[in-house]
Write a structure and sequence with these properties.
273 residues
């Protein structure tokens, strides 16, 4: 949850506070590399969900070695991307964000597999607090956003990175986000969680916007997903804030206000959260 707290600092122009996260990750870059298996340290990096200030926790230990969270650093890089888009600091983009995002995406690319039809699949992993399965939407959405963003940076900075063809292949051939009559599932084999505080299975449309309201063909699944997951009965302030933001993203101001009011009225609304 740490990275989420920085989003409001970017948009409120409190960059002296927002910069502490990217500054810290620059300082701990070697530890992020050391967190992945030694065989991948030449081009990958990662971060565990739970780690101390030293950032030295192996990503393959949480929540279990068989079902790690491989996408945490890519998700963290989304908020670094927000920081860049606020500052438009090209030096930071070139020398820090791009290399770190590249490493975070490589961690997943080392373990994806391709079926007989050429479709790219993500390995068994943990969709935070939800399910353990291959092709979960947390990993699929993080990988797709990461590859799309790397391609955008590569084009803007004219880097001609040797991996750009690989990133484009992922964007074009990655398994479509699993969905059913209730909207997006947790994974191919697991339905979406109901009445649950976390929305990692919906990252593809918030915050990544890989799928978004400006794409008419995706509006139905987005709306079903929000209605199924976004219950006003979830007693959690930041969950209601997320639901409010989702409704804002689909131009539904009435429901955005409704859930923001629920967030402000939550019994667990504290100064530090």
């Amino acid at each position: 949850n740490t990275q989420m707290l920085y989003s409001s600092l970017h948009i409120s122009n409190q960059l002296e506070l927002a910069s502490t996260l990217p500054d810290y990750l620059i300082k701990k870059n070697d530890q992020l590399i050391a967190s992945v298996p030694e065989k991948w340290r030449h081009d990958a990096a990662g971060v565990s969900r739970c780690t101390g200030p030293d950032m030295q926790e192996s990503i393959l230990t949480w929540p279990a070695p068989e079902t790690p969270e491989r996408s945490n650093l890519t998700y963290l890089c989304y908020y670094l991307w927000e920081y860049y888009r606020t500052t438009m600091d090209e030096e930071y983009l070139r020398n820090h964000l791009f290399p770190l995002l590249r490493r975070s995406v490589n961690l997943m690319l080392h373990e994806v597999n391709v079926d007989e039809n050429g479709t790219i699949h993500t390995p068994i992993g943990h969709c935070p607090e939800s399910s353990n399965d291959a092709d979960n939407n947390y990993d699929l959405s993080s990988l797709k956003w990461g590859c799309q963003t790397l391609l955008e940076i590569d084009a803007d900075l004219k880097l001609k990175d040797p991996l750009r063809k690989r990133w484009q292949e992922v964007v074009e051939k990655l398994l479509p986000f699993p969905a059913d009559e209730n909207g997006y599932r947790s994974s191919v084999n697991e339905s979406a969680p109901l009445m649950h505080r976390h929305w990692c299975h919906l990252f593809q449309f918030y915050p990544y916007y890989v799928v978004n309201w400006e794409q008419p063909q995706n509006r139905a699944v987005i709306l079903k997903s929000i209605k199924y997951w976004g219950s006003p009965e979830i007693p959690n302030a930041w969950t209601q804030c997320v639901i409010s933001s989702m409704y804002s993203s689909i131009r539904d101001g009435d429901n955005a206000l409704k859930h923001m009011d629920l967030a402000l009225a939550s019994p667990n609304f504290y100064p530090n959260t």
